[in-house]
Automatic annotation (TrEMBL), chain A:
The keyword Transport applies. GO terms for cellular component: ATP-binding cassette (ABC) transporter complex. The keyword Transmembrane applies. This is ABC transporter permease. It is a multi-pass membrane protein. Keywords: Amino-acid transport, Cell membrane, Membrane, Transmembrane, Transmembrane helix, Transport. Its main location: membrane. Residues 22-209 form the ABC transmembrane type-1 domain. The chain crosses the membrane at residues 20-45, 74-99, 190-213.
TrEMBL record, chain B:
It comes from Gemmobacter aquaticus. InterPro entries: AAA+_ATPase, ABC_ATPase_HisP-typ, ABC_transporter-like_ATP-bd, ABC_transporter-like_CS, MetN_ABC_transporter-like, P-loop_NTPase. Belongs to the ABC transporter superfamily. This is Amino acid ABC transporter ATP-binding protein. GO terms for molecular function: ABC-type amino acid transporter activity; ATP binding; ATP hydrolysis activity. GO terms for cellular component: plasma membrane.
Amino acid sequence: MFGYTFYWSIVWQKLPELAAGAALTLQITVLSMILGTAFGAALAIGRQGRGLGLRLSTAWVELARNTPALFQIYMVYFGLGAFGIHLSSYVAMVAALTFNNAGYLAEVFRGGLSSVPKTQMSAARSLGMTVGQSYARVVFPQVFKTVFFPYVNQLNWALLNSSLGMIIGLRELTGATQAAQSESFRTFEFFLVAAAIYFLLSKIVEVSARLIFRRLFRT
Amino acid sequence: MIEIRNVRKSFGNHEVIKGVSLEVKKGEVLCLIGASGSGKSTMLQCINGLEPIQAGEILVDGISVHAKSTDLNLLRQKLGIVFQQYNAFPHLNALENVALAPRIVRKMRPKDALEIAREHLDYVGLSAQAEQYPTSLSGGQQQRLAIARALAMKPDYMLFDEVTSALDPELVGEVLDTIRKLRTNGMTMIMVTHDIAFARESADRVAFFDGGVICEIGDARQVITAPNKERTQQFLQRVLH
């Protein structure tokens, strides 16, 4: 029963395809995190307010955090398709992952926002800064410092979540691996290598985040 | 000139300012004194529009602070304010703290903003601390930094809200010296203070706030050494003895 023979050379032949998949994975991750950060910040501010803004942002955060990411991707790709809005799998994936990231990041930012004294806002406004400038230049830089590590956590999570892109036909790392292995059925070898690549990407993200943190906040 | 006309201000059902009128002319120094909760600090926050008012009007150089058509961000460039709790920006060093608003609000080039910041740090005696972050500065240094930050916007008026109340006694002097220097340079100032001796020495006029109204206003020496109103006498007796 331990008679499995590893057959690696087929994997090396397909390595360029896996590398292209990994590049797409990174691209989706970074894009959905940048957009997710912008929306997440807006949601966190919205949840401090009242009225329609509060209700909309709360609905977003609740949906994003309490339903599976897989369901969210299906909703954007097939669900919107049912209403005649046909997105490419790439756009659908970035949109769905942005939706998911923004929901989690809103909660991360909310914690950070409550750690910045309200008087910081008054001080910024009293110097003639607009609300937007005050958030961008005074409040959020302080928020980022407090939430930096939960933020990197979400970045890692987004990287791994992007593997769900396979189910809507995206050739990101998992999709590319799936396609490559289906020609040879060397499933074990291919997915081991893919897992190693994911691990490597995650570590690169984590280490660069730490370096950036030190450079940015001089600690 | 700052004109305050019959201003009323409430927090919920609680009215803290119950009809206050006063005028401050260019170059004048006015001190607001009175017990905690008498409405003096709130009055300052209303002057630069940080707090809305329920009735009356505040005019700064003829511009109504609370009118919907007023560009508050533009108006605030005329009105520097310094708070009791310094409120230095902790993620920026001293130089960047001062340079931020000139760069963002006045749209100066970074180099020019830093130049302005250096000048103002020098003015308050913090040249040596330019690269330090607020957490490594003393309370007195942070408060002088806050003054430099406000001055860098080249305001026409300065508002001081109990700026020495949170300081250790031995650090009060350096902040008061900075304010004295401003007075010598002709800055128009409104100061909320509990330091009666400082008010007598540096103010042209003193207004005594009591229960949300001005109980007595007049020449600083007269109000403090020979007040006309009984309430003023009682207050001064309490704080001076």
